[in-house]
Amino acid sequence: MDSVHHIWCPLFSQEFQDLPDGAETTLTDRPLTHEELMHHVPSIFGENRHTSRSEHYAYIPTITVLENLQQEGFQPFFACQTRVRDQSRREYTKHMLRLRRAGQITGQHVPEIILLNSHDGSSSYQMLPGYFRAICTNGLVCGQSLGELRVPHRGNVVEKVIEGAYEVVGVFERIEEKRDAMQSLILPPPARQALAQAALTYRYGDEHQPVTTADILTPRRREDYGKDLWSTYQTIQENMLKGGISGRSARGKRIHTRAIHSIDTDIKLNRALWVMAETLLESMR
User: Fold this and answer.
1) In this structure, how many other beta carbons lie within 10 angstroms of the beta carbon of residue 153?
2) Which pLDDT value is given to residue 56?
3) What is the pLDDT of residue 125?
4) 246 partner at 20 to 30 Å CA-CA among 8, 33, 162, 196?
5) Which residues contact 99 (CB under 8 A, 6 or more apart)?
C-alpha cells in the first residue's frame, strides 16, 4: 500500500521534524506557503497530465485551483500526497488539501473543506466537509451524506471546483446541527459498545480484531470522558486513525495498532465512522 508524505499545519508553531514513519510534519499558526507546498507536496504543481491520459483530459494543476480558492478566502492548513513506488508518477500522484475559510481559522472545532485530486487519472477533484479538532490536532471527515462533491477532469474545472467549495460551505450549518444533536444524546453502554464494534468490524473484519471495544472506547484525554455520542465518536475516530493501542496479533503476539498513513484509507475509514455515528443518532432519536 502506498504511504503518505505530508505536512500537518494546525494551530501551533514547530519546526519540520522527521518522524519514524518517514513523514515530515510541521505545526504552524498560519496557512501553508507555496514554497512549503512545492517542497513537500510537489504533485499539486504538476506541469502536465500523465502520459496515460488522453487529450480529452482537462489538465488543470491543483495549484491553479488552489490559487483561485485562495482568492475566495480559502487557505491550506494541511497537505499530503501519496508516496508511490513508481517515481514517474510522483508528480502526478493523489494528494489531499484541508482548507479553512477566512474568519474560521481557529477555534475548538474548525470547519474545513477537504480537497482530493491526482493528475494520473486515479482521482477526479473531490470535495468533502471536514472538521479540525484543535485539542488533539485531529481531522474529522463529515461525508458521505453531507456535501460530498466530485468534479471530473473535463470542462471548466476551476469554476466547478469553486462552486463546489461554496456548496460544501453551505452544509457546515447542518453539520453543526448534527454535532449539537450528537452532544445532546447520552449513549447507554450497549449503544457505545455497538458503535465501537461496528468500527472494529469495518476496519479489521470479523475473523480477528487486534484490540477490543473497550480499547477504542478509552479516551486519550480528560475532555473526552463524556458518554454522549459526539465524545464517543471522536474517541473511537482518534483511536482508530492514530493507532498505538496495545493488542494481540492473530498468532497471539503483542502488537500496537498502526496509524493510518494512506489517503484513501484515511478518507474511507473517517467517512464510514461519521456515517456510523450519524446512523446511530437517527436510530435513537
Assistant:
1) 19
2) 57
3) 82
4) 8
5) 69, 74, 75, 76, 77, 112, 113, 114, 115, 165
